Each structure stands twice: as C-alpha cells, then as structure tokens.
C-alpha cells in the first residue's frame, strides 16, 4: 500500500484527481484507490501524528509499504519560492528531537526541515529563530512532518518514508492562484516518486505443510524444517527426489515424533553440504 | 543544501562537535561534494530503529563522529588470540565499505553506514595507557576493513607510526582488499601483521561484494610481505556450500603455486560461527542470503556447523595444506580457545 499524508485539501486536490482517489467514509478524511490511500492530517504535528498512527493501524501497514508526506513549507529565502525539496532531517521544535529519513541521491535538492506547532509568520524574528534552532544557514519549516515521522517510523523502514515539500511562502500568506500552481507542481513530483518507489513483487515460498504433518513435527521441528527448506531453495538444492524416496521406502509418513525426528536428521544429512 | 554529482558517499552525517575539526575538513575535502547533514551524536542516525541494511548497502552514506567512552575492548572468545593474554580490539572506524553477506556486523549494528571516528589521537593515548600495564595484542580492524578507506582516513598510517615507537604493541590489520599500493608507503614493522582473508573465487563473487578477487588478494599479501610486514592467511570463515570441497581445493592449489609459505607467519582456519542473537537478527534482515539461511546448529549461545561438519571442513583444509606448511603454522580456533 502507498500512504500519502498531506495537511490540507487544497494541497492534495491535484493528487486526488490524478490518482482518481475516492473519499472513504470515516472520521479521518481519506481518499483511496486499490493501492493508494491519501489522508488529510490537518495542521499541527499532534493531529498529524494521530491521523498517521490511526491510518497505518487501520490499513495494517507493513514494511514494504511506502509513505509520502508532501505539502507546502515556509522558508526564509525568497530564492526558494516554488522550489521542491526532499527532506533529509526533520527537527521537532517542541521536543527538540531530530529525525532522519534515509535518503538516496536524486535530482531533487535536499534540505532540513523544522516542524513547528504554530504558524510561521513574518511577525517573528524568523532568521534568528530558525538559525538558532537548527544552526544551519537555510532550512524549511512546516507543521506536520515530525508528527508523521514519529507515528510511522516504528512500522515503516526509514527509506520507505519520503518527505517532499514545496516552498510556498516566506511567512506571508500567498495568493490562492500561486498555491494552486505549487500544488500541481508538487503533485507531479509525488507521482514520479510513487513510480520510482515501486518494489518488485516477490512470490511467496511454496509450503511443505503435508511434510510437516507427516513428520509428526513439533513446533521446533517445524521451524527447523522450514529453515532447511528455505536454505535448499536459496542454494538450489533439489529436495523433491529425496522426499519421494522417503515416501516410497515407507519412512514417511512417520509413525510418531521420534521417527519424524530421525527422518529430519536424514534430510539434514543428505541435503546439507 | 545543494546536491552534488555522485561520489563514494552521496551524503555525510557530521557531528556538530567535530564540524570544525581539521580531520573532518580533510576527509570532506577528499569526497566529491557530498550532501552534508549536521547531527548531534552519531548514534542519532546509526541507532535509528527500522533501518534497511539492503537499502543502506546500495546507498552508502558516511558518518563522521567523535568517539567517547571506551576505546579498547577485550577480544571475543570466538576470535583467534594467537596465545596472547592481553588481546584487545579497537575501532577507529565501524562498519565497512565491503558487503560480505555473512559479516557479523549485519547482526551487531542496525545501520550499514560506515562511521569514521576522527579523534584518533585519543585512541592512541588510551592504547599508550594500556601499554603501561604490559604488552598488548590489538586488532585494529575488528569491526571494519580499514584498507579500502585508507586514502580517506589514513588510520593505518597513523597506527603504523605509533607501533614503530611502542615496542610493547603488536597489531593486526585484517582485510579482504586486493589493493597492493598501501604497503610500500608504510614503515616496515614485524609487529604490524597484515591478515588476508581468502575465500574461493566463487564465494567471493557471490557473497563478498566489493572485495578484492582471490588473485588480487594473493598479490596484495605478497606485496605486504615484500614490504617487510608479517603476513597471516585467514581461511576463516570456511563456508560449506554445494561444491565447497572442489572450490577450496582450487583455492589451496592457487596458494601453493603463487605463495612462498616460508614468508607466511601463520594460517588460521575456522568454520563459520556466529553469536545466536546476531544470527537471528541476520536471518531476519537477509532473508535471501544462502549463507545466513543455512540451518546451523546452536550450542552455548553460538551458531555454527554441526561438530562433524565443522571438523570435516577444518581437517579437509589442514590435509590440503600440511604437505606445504608446517603443522605448527596452521592455527585452528579450537586449539586457540
């Protein structure tokens, strides 16, 4: 499953349309298709964390899944306006904690991000404020990323969480038409990221459940057998002829667990290099 | 904030405390403009939960840090101590540029990113203090392979100078690198042992990613010997795989042809063994590794081949070597314990 978390409907609208996502009934505003869920977190790290945790739990997120947090961000540098950044460090202002999603080199410029629980406005002594907190020349700020990371990092591997931000303002509220354009640009990047992050589909290993039964296997024996079969599959060691022979010779099915243990030892002896 | 063209490490995490350290500047200047991410402590990145070793191995980022706390550790019981009572290891670097499937570091650490500690002077001063209590046998590359990153770190040269002026210290640098250029630039010392892990070429290609070929490693060990260093050959770990006997026979044949064994200090022999907890973690992290997924036996907290298979493998190698190498030069782990 691909999970996208965005703060506001205005940010998400182009993506909802591009992916043909349909609204899902429920307290959290979610839109989904067969492999993607886009959730609106609202603003602020606490609500973002609550929504993220709830959605990942509801959809039973697993480590092959992908999470993207995309949205608008503030910056101090006018040159950044409209530019899209990949975030390699998230600093939570309230807790003074840092989070590091794993990043690889890409064509998207990287930046650090500070997550605030309050809006970034032009009335603040912003330069002093941001530079004091992160001690870096240039950083972005938002109101959700640290909450999303904190809620998701125990379920998803760090390289499967992507944080993409477009600089929408320098502390002043931008015009609606500009925001709309930024959202469309961000949508393109998110779509590209979704494509790039596809994992190859792996086939599950075939099971030998009948063999486990025929060995009268205990829990430990089952574990040992599965390990042996998994190894043989990786090492391309043919197991079927030996199993067939054991059936033909009447050694399988085993009459009891003790006999099953002996057969398991035969499998170990004959199959392992 | 600006991205750069591809380099050895695309990203470098740098502890704020050492940001202005000359060693940090020197290392960063040797990389091709990586993205630099400031961090407070290296553990903030290195110990994060839920890191993917597979991802990090193919997207290697570097961490530059300052070592605090303990600098020298007692050697582990599963390692050869060569009869040295005071056997310690130290780590001016942890993790490795190479990617050996069976490496125990995959079980020990939650990150695949190499960490370079830049305060080497403190490692040396701690070693000096330990030497006041008596001679020391120190493994310098217990948690890393120093050779492939020597041009970046210079750690081997640093230790080389230190050993020369500290007669109580004997040190071992173990490597799978096939690079032979290093040795001529060092000061010869009979107390700096270069240990070369050798594996059959098929195993190197399938499971020791990024390491030197067998021929390159043999050339490198000959060069190390020529430059005045004691050389150890490590046929350790011996890995059993379909056709392993033929592969090890070919390896020994090549050694016999190319190496003058009278110049070799000793040959260590040992089969694959791993702490049970590391093995469990490695199985989870490397589900497709044929070596890690072998159904090893567990005994006294360690995983390994069954006793008969272990003995058979060791005896097999000893029998191949014995006509050419005096038996006392062949060191088995169990003899060592």
Structural features, described:
- The complex is a heterodimer of chains A (273) and B (337).
- By secondary structure, chain A is α/β, with parallel strands linked by helices.
- Helix content of chain A is 40%, strand content 21%.
- Chain A contains 9 helices and 10 strands.
- Chain A has a 5-stranded mixed barrel with strand order 5-9-8-6-10.
- Chain A starts with a strand and ends with a helix.
- Chain B has 13 helices and 18 strands.
- Chain B has helices at residues 22-29, 42-46, 53-58, 105-108, 120-131, 150-153, 155-164, 201-207, 214-226, 244-258, 276-285, 307-321, 333-336, and strands at residues 11-15, 35-39, 62-65, 72-74, 87-90, 93-94, 99-100, 115-117, 136-139, 169-175, 192-197, 208-209, 231-238, 264-271, 273-275, 297-299, 302-304, 330-332.
- In chain B, the strands form 4 sheets. An 8-stranded mixed beta sheet of chain B has the order 4-5-9-10-11-13-14-18. A 5-stranded mixed beta sheet of chain B has the order 2-1-3-8-6. A 3-stranded antiparallel beta sheet of chain B has the order 15-17-16.
- In chain B, strand 13, helix 10 and strand 14 form a beta-alpha-beta unit.
- The radius of gyration of chain B is 20 Å and the shape is globular.
- Chain B starts with 10 loop residues before the first strand and ends with a helix.
- Classes of the chains: A alpha/beta (273), B alpha/beta (337).
- Chain A binds chain B through residues 63, 85, 88-89, 98, 100, 102-112, 135-138, 153-160, 224, 227-228, 230-231, 234-237, 268, 272-273, and chain B through 1-3, 6, 10-11, 13, 16, 35, 37-40, 44-45, 48-52, 55-56, 59, 61, 240-244, 288-290, 293-295, 309.
Q: In total, how many beta strands of chain B?
A: 18
Strand order in the sheet with the most strands of chain B: 4-5-9-10-11-13-14-18
Unreliable segments of chain A (pLDDT under 50, ≥5 consecutive)? Answer: none
Overall 3D geometry of chain B?
Answer: globular
Number of helices of chain B: 13
Determine Rg of chain A (CA atoms, Å).
Answer: 26 Å
C-alpha-based Rg of chain B, rounded: 20 Å
Largest sheet geometry of chain B: 8 strands, mixed
Name the beta content range of chain B. 15-25%
What proportion of the residues of chain A form beta strands (DSSP E)?
15-25%
Helix and strand content put the structural class of chain B at: alpha/beta
**Helix fraction bin of chain A:** 25-40%
Oligomeric state, counting identical vs distinct chains: heterodimer
Major sheet size, sense and barrel closure of chain A: 5 strands, mixed, barrel
Largest interface: A-B, 41 and 36 residues
Shape of chain A: elongated
- The helix-strand sequence of chain A is EHEEEHEEEEHEHEHHHHH
């Amino acid at each position: 499953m691909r999970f996208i978390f965005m703060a506001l409907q205005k940010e998400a609208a182009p993506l909802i349309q591009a992916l043909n996502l349909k609204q899902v009934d429920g307290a959290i505003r979610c839109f989904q298709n067969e492999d993607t869920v886009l959730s609106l977190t609202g603003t602020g790290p606490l609500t973002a964390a609550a929504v993220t945790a709830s959605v990942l739990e509801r959809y039973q997120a697993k480590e092959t899944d992908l999470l993207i947090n995309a949205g608008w961000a503030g910056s101090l540098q006018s040159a950044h306006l409209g530019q899209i950044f990949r975030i390699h460090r998230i600093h939570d202002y309230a807790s003074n904690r840092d989070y590091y999603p794993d990043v690889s080199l890409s064509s998207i410029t990287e930046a650090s991000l500070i997550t605030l629980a309050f809006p970034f406005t032009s009335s603040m002594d912003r330069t002093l404020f941001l530079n004091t907190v992160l001690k870096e020349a240039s950083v972005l700020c938002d109101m959700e990323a640290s909450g999303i990371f904190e809620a998701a990092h125990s379920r998803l591997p760090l390289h499967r969480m992507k944080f993409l931000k477009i600089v929408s303002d320098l502390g002043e509220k931008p015009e609606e038409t500009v925001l709309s354009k930024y959202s469309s640009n961000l949508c393109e990047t998110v779509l590209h990221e979704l494509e790039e992050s596809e994992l190859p589909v792996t086939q599950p290993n075939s099971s030998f459940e009948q063999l486990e039964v025929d060995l009268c296997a205990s829990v430990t024996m089952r574990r040992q057998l599965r390990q042996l079969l998994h190894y043989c599959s990786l090492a391309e060691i043919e197991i079927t002829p030996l199993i067939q022979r054991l059936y033909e010779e009447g050694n399988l099915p085993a009459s009891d667990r003790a006999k099953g243990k002996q057969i398991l030892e035969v499998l170990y002896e004959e199959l392992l290099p | 904030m600006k991205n750069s063209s591809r380099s050895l490490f695309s990203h470098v995490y740098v502890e704020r405390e050492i940001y202005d350290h000359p060693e940090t500047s020197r290392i960063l200047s040797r990389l091709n403009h990586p993205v630099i991410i400031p961090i407070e402590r290296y553990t903030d990145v290195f110990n994060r939960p839920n890191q993917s070793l597979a991802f990090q191995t193919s997207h290697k980022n570097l961490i530059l840090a300052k070592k605090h706390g303990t600098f020298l550790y007692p050697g582990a019981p599963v390692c050869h101590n060569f009869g040295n009572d005071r056997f310690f290891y130290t780590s001016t670097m942890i993790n490795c540029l190479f990617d050996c499937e069976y490496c125990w570091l995959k079980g020990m650490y939650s990150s695949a990113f190499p960490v370079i500690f830049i305060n080497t002077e403190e490692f040396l001063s701690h070693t000096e203090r330990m030497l006041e209590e008596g001679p020391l046998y120190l493994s310098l590359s217990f948690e890393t392979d120093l050779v492939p990153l020597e041009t970046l770190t210079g750690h081997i040269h640093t230790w080389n100078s230190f050993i020369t002026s500290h007669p109580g210290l004997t040190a071992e640098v173990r490597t799978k690198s096939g690079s032979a250029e290093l040795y001529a630039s060092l000061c010869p010392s009979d107390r700096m042992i270069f240990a070369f892990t050798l594996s059959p070429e098929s195993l190197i290609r399938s499971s020791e990613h990024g390491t030197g070929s067998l021929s390159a490693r043999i050339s490198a060990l000959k060069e190390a010997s020529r430059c005045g260093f004691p050389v150890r050959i490590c046929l350790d770990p011996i890995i059993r795989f379909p056709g392993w006997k033929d592969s090890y026979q070919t390896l020994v044949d090549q050694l016999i042809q190319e190496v003058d064994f009278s110049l070799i200090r000793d040959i260590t022999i040992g089969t694959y063994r791993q702490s049970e907890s590391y093995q469990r973690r490695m199985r989870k992290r490397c589900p497709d590794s044929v070596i890690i997924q072998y159904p090893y036996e567990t005994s006294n907290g360690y995983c390994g081949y069954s006793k008969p298979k272990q003995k058979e493998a060791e005896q097999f190698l000893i029998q191949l070597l014995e006509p050419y190498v005096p038996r006392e030069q062949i060191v088995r782990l169990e003899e060592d314990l």
